Amino acid sequence: MIKWMLLISLLINTLNAYVSYEKGFINKKGDFVIKLDYQNAESFHEGLAAVKINNKWGFINRKNTLVIPAQYSYVQSFSEGLAVVQIGKKYGFIDTKGRVVIQAKYDNASKFSEGVAKIKKNDLYGFINKKGKIIIEPQYTYAESFNEHLAKVKINNRYGFINKKNKLVIPAKFEAAFEFSDGLIRIKENGRWGYMDKKGKIFSIPKSDWSGLFHEGFAAIEINSKWGAIDTRGNIKIKPQYQHLTTFYNGLARIKKDGKYGFINKKNKIVITPIFDNAENFQENLALVSKNRKYFFITKTGQSLTKEKYRYAESFSEGLAFVKKKVSFEEAYYAKINKTALKYHKTLDEAFKHNKGKKPIVLFVVDGCPQCENLRTIDLANKEIIDILNKDFVVVINEITTLPNKYAVQATPAVWFIKDQNPMFQVIYGFQNVETFKKIFNQVKKEFHKNK
Fold first, then answer.
1. Which end of the chain is least crowded, N or C, by CB within 10 Å?
2. Three-class SS of residue 194?
3. CATH number corresponding to 207-310
């Protein structure tokens, strides 16, 4: 379906107010407590959340103050007081004040865990402490972060575990191995899955296609394409019967049954009926779920947190969840003058009829298009551009799912400047930065006047 909307003017005050509500963080009452006007954001960790501004990342606090300027092409969330940042082509660490405390000199890096961080140099992995001192020289072709005082490493295509003194405490002899959880690691040996404790004691489980990490005393297990759960002794506690089952969180496990997701308790009682198209595990006693491509949160009784549905959402972290409201391109940036669908030619006719000497512009956009998002959050959020549009142009927004046959739009976003109903007077494809856009507008204005 093609949605058409004719807008005779841009209302700056309405525009700015609406943009601030389009995305942000909600609390557990469903209230928007932080309203954002950035390209993107990540969840809060240690009181700070990464935000993307003009394609660079920085950090805000819970008061929505930009405490670390958006200057990095890549960041990770804070962990143990430090965050990974990319400077140029190298990776280092900053503290919560934004100070570079470990110079960016590594090919890659991971967040701190148990006082140490994994780093990569010359295609090999090692570990550093918070002072930036290398405690384990880069020597492994693969490694993972420390968890429960041990880190997985790869030696001669086999996996084992080292301690912080680089002692191999669990021999590298397994086909596959996963991090410790509840004091146990999941291993694969001779084609079979099993579990081992930190003393090296292995216990087998029923022959399975796959098994998961332990959490809250249970691990998911797949047998003959059906999913159930075992306890820490390897006993089957939930008979394999579901299309999928995940680890228990907050006392509940996500299941898939008849193509839909719901939740069971540890007694295998369905406490939330499988009616969702997708679902995340419970975090902070709330679960993110979706139906018909709309996201919302439910409680452990299956009740919706609010009536609000979202275009995008992330699970709660530190009492807040990042969400994007379901709004169209037009609704977010322009006043709703005509709520009815208009055919393309009728829309243009109306634009010419009411333009009062202004020239029509047609913007073709597609929901989910990254460059359309940049056009919306960067160019059309710039006051100078808004002033130019208000003064000299009439805007016709075409938010499309199918491109028109008559005027084959080659890509989105597309900006068409129209003169005397000639859509090919001037055409721009793709995202342009603010300065380039301003130059184009000014040049088009000159062309309009020159050809009067």
1. C
2. strand
3. 2.20.25
